Amino acid sequence: MVPGLEAAVRRSLPQLAGGLAVATAGLATQAKAVALAGLALYAAELRVALVPFARTALRRPPHTAASWMLGAGMAWLVVAVVADLGVLAASRRVVDLDGQLARLVPVVVAGFALQTLTGALTYLLPVVFGRGAWGNRRLTALLELGWPLRVTAINLGVLALVAGVAPALGWWLAGLGLGSFPPLAVAALAAATRRS
Length: 196
Fold this sequence. Notes:
This protein is mainly α. It has nine helices and no strands.
């Protein structure tokens, strides 16, 4: 990780929380200007928090399942925030957002939240249950089975859902990519239990 990463995250976290709180208050009270200000603050601080991550990725490109999933998850978060900001700015009233942002639900749920969780667990499970370098490598190998196909399926599925092209295929792709992780995690944990 590049120098300054921890400081950037520490500095931006309160601002991110503040922006989210202001945006939520604006949306709840139907105050477009307040919601827009909160979302703009959130977007600005998200950029501050992600710059060191981007510099790290440029210095050492992602090469594992965890790094690709975490990177893709963050990319989908940026897409969702920018799209929210654009749609909110173009809307006459806050209530008009409901119908316009429905396509972003898969972006937030599958593209960001579930993919980020899967990437984090792909990294953390071997660290916690691997019991040393050999065990860590063994569990990582199990959790990374077919990872390029799984990561591709998740992100192509989310892209298809956002674009509105073949939504059934999009759900299947995202579901298969994400749904393949729990059996691999169970197998990895069983392997770790057998070794102990």
